[in-house]
Design goal:
Layout (H helix, E strand, L loop, with lengths): L6 H20 L38 H6 L2 H8 L1 H7 L2 H7 L2 H9 L1 H8 L2 H13 L4 H15 L3 H8 L2 H9 L11 H9 L11 H8 L2 H9 L3 H7 L1 H7 L3 H21 L6 H6 L1 H9 L1 H9 L1 H8 L2 H9 L1 H4 L6 H9 L11 H8 L2 H9 L2 H8 L1 H7 L8 H9 L1 H8 L2 H25 L5 H9 L1 H9 L1 H8 L2 H9 L1 H8 L2 H8 L3 H7 L9
Length: about 525
């Protein structure tokens, strides 16, 4: 097992441990530390860190991963901090750690989840809605994709139309009729100024007249009349969603915000369907940009592993332990084919044997064994994603591969990445509500709850069973609602939030005795 060799790395870890205490002290559990500078509070990638997993299905902890995790300096410093021990020993916190998918989502949106948890009934209702309407996911994701495709490349024109909601809704109800203006913004202006004489505008003549008199909006539409062709190309989706003006307007605005951020990053229109179908996974990657960057550089190998999510979870949760295969993919194939004889693989032997027998997957790994080094070098980040390995599916990874350089660049722009992620989650929630409303399947109260917490709902929709379990745990919700500042301090440090979301962190705390007693 590797060890830390520099005082600089140790200082980084000490600073990160202080971040936790700052958050805990902020709500009265401990002493207050001096404020940290903007460059402090990170853990270097070179630190030794090996983890394992407690996941769904047959994925189980390995023989050595938890002990090795416990021996890292980062873990040692965390469990020796009395404020952290006090929090970690509470039944509610242990329950949250027992659901790594939930913990990852919470640390990606601590303020939203902490606020929601103040009302257990509201939290449970939202979790129930996610569970009950997960079957609508495919339909709502298609609606999101259509909205994104329609607005992509037309942000200024969409903003102009959004500033006149009645017009946008009228066009949405009959988008095909407006395709005739795709080659002439002036023709649209003239028709809008005499809307009472145009069959497609007459029912909303006053609204179209106000748009025609809005010089700024008309200038944007005259500069991009092709927006009407784009809307018409998705006419059926717009018609099905345009029955509720405010919801429709918010959905379009969220789609426009997400599309604009992705467009600026160079993400192609062709990739939008995959991204819109996987908003929760994209959100988790946005919280660990180093992992996104690594995936962008080795997407084909990750694509191969995604076909075997159980094996992928083990690899992500034990990144350092797999680094030895980075120069010899044949060694990995041999180890996987005889997984019962390898301590890293034995508890999940059948999953790795299936991977070894997958000729196409092994060919991709043999072409890029450095994927194991990439995972090992960012083991903290990938360990935090391990509990959600199933969300890293072929559809999303293929989209990343088609735009690998753009996604790599996006990973270096935190503000743009987070903006796109939050807009996509909001779009996800709005699309589901609109799809459910169109099918008369969602009541007003449930709709209001979803739209008041769109990011939280999107995360719940991706892992409904895990959130359903937490929603019934009063202690977990009490811990979540009363520790917002501490969670925000953790969330502000990607490496620390990844550590907290690691599936083996709970088991390591148990073995360290943190779960049995408070600080000594």
């Amino acid at each position: 097992m590797a060890t830390l060799s520099t005082s600089n790395n140790r200082r980084m870890i000490l600073t990160s441990a202080a971040v936790i205490a700052v958050g805990l002290g902020a709500y009265g559990l401990g002493r207050v530390y001096p404020p940290l500078g903007p460059s402090q509070g990170t853990i270097a990638p070179a630190e030794r860190y090996v983890s394992s997993q407690v996941g769904e299905g047959d994925v189980t902890l390995g023989d050595t991963a938890v002990p090795e995790l416990m021996q890292t300096d980062a873990f040692e410093l965390m469990v020796k901090d009395p404020q952290f021990r006090a929090l970690a020993a509470s039944p509610g916190f242990k329950a949250l750690l027992g659901q790594p998918q939930v913990m990852a989502a919470i640390l990606n949106n601590p303020q939203g989840f902490s606020s929601l948890a103040k009302n257990q009934s509201a939290f449970q209702d939202l979790a129930n809605t996610a569970k009950n309407f997960s079957s609508l996911g495919l339909k709502s994701h298609q609606a999101s994709a259509d909205l994104l495709n329609a607005v992509y490349g037309h942000s200024a024109a969409i903003e102009a139309l959004s500033s006149h909601p009645e017009v946008l809704e009228a066009i949405g109800r009959n988008a095909a009729a407006f395709a005739r203006f795709a080659n002439s913004g002036n023709a649209f202006r003239d028709a809008a100024s005499k809307a009472s004489l145009d069959a497609s505008m007459a029912d909303n003549a006053a609204a179209f007249g106000r748009l025609a008199a809005d010089n700024a909006a008309m200038k944007a539409l005259q500069a991009d009349p092709q927006v009407f062709a784009s809307l018409a190309a998705n006419a059926s989706t717009f018609k099905s969603l345009s029955g509720q003006q405010k919801l429709f307007l918010d959905a379009v605005r969220n789609a426009s915000a997400a599309a604009r951020s992705l467009e600026l990053a160079g993400i192609s229109n062709a990739s939008l369907s995959a991204i819109s179908a996987n908003p929760a996974a994209f959100s988790l990657l946005s919280s660990q940009p180093k992992a996104l960057q690594a995936i962008s550089g080795h997407w084909n190998a990750f694509l191969a592993l995604s076909g075997h999510p159980q094996a992928l979870q083990v690899i992500l949760a034990n990144g350092s332990a797999f680094s030895s295969f980075s120069h010899n993919a044949n060694a990995f194939r041999d180890a996987a084919s005889k997984a019962a004889n390898d301590a890293r693989l034995a508890r999940n032997a059948s999953a790795f044997q299936n991977l070894a027998n997958d000729t196409a997957a092994m060919k991709a790994l043999q072409a890029d064994p450095q994927v194991f080094a990439a995972i090992g070098n960012q083991s903290l980040a990938f360990g935090g994603l391990a509990g959600n390995a199933k969300l890293l599916n072929a559809q999303l990874l293929s989209a990343i591969g088609r735009n690998s350089s753009a996604f790599s660049n996006l990973a270096n722009n935190a503000a743009q990445l987070n903006s796109a992620s939050r807009a996509l989650q909001a779009l996800d929630a709005h699309s589901l509500v609109l799809s459910a409303a169109a099918a008369n399947q969602l009541n007003v109260g449930a709709s209001q709850a979803v739209l008041a917490n769109p990011q939280a709902f999107s995360a719940m929709l991706a892992n409904p069973r895990a959130f359903d379990a937490i929603s019934k745990n009063s202690a977990a919700l009490a811990t979540l609602s009363s520790n917002q500042k501490a969670l925000q301090s953790l969330a502000a440090q990607p490496n620390l939030s990844a550590l907290m979301a690691n599936p083996s962190f709970s088991a390591a705390l148990n073995q360290a005795g943190v779960s049995q007693s408070h600080a000594d």
